[in-house]
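Appendix C: a fully annotated inverse folding record. The material below is reproduced so that readers can follow the format used throughout the book. The structure is listed first as tokens, followed by the designed sequence.
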């Protein structure tokens, strides 16, 4: 016994879709592809603009992280860690875990600020270029 599809109006009695149903689905797909193509062609950002708005903040964040790390290793807490004896006789560094956590938190905050500011700056630069291009287009059309 063969099971029939739940939606019988677009299928033949043997369960195969009718040609009209297939054509309707293909037309729907064609409309979606056309809409996506139109959205892409009307997008003002070129590939260079998109790369600029992605790569500049990423590079700035990486450089800021390296700068902060190098600053921390030179000017951060003293390298010579003091050790203290606990009652059990084991030694532990006073600055190990806490210093690492402070460094991580400050480094992440610094890199996040630099990344956000460079992202805004690169987006503003791209918008400025678009405004200038639009002004040139309108002045050349006159």
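Designed amino acids, in order:
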């Amino acid at each position: 016994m063969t099971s029939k599809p739940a939606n019988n109006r677009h299928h033949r009695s043997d369960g195969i879709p009718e040609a009209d149903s297939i054509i309707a689905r293909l037309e729907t797909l064609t409309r979606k592809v056309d809409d996506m193509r139109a959205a892409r062609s009307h997008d003002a950002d070129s590939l260079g603009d998109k790369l600029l708005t992605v790569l500049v903040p990423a590079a700035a964040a990486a450089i800021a992280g390296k700068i902060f790390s190098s600053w921390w290793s030179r000017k951060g807490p003293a390298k010579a860690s003091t050790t203290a004896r606990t009652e059990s006789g084991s030694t532990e560094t006073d600055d190990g875990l806490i210093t690492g956590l402070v460094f991580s938190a400050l480094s992440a905050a610094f890199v996040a600020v630099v990344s956000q500011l460079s992202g805004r700056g690169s987006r503003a630069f791209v918008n400025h270029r678009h405004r200038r291009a639009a002004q040139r287009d309108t002045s050349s059309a006159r």
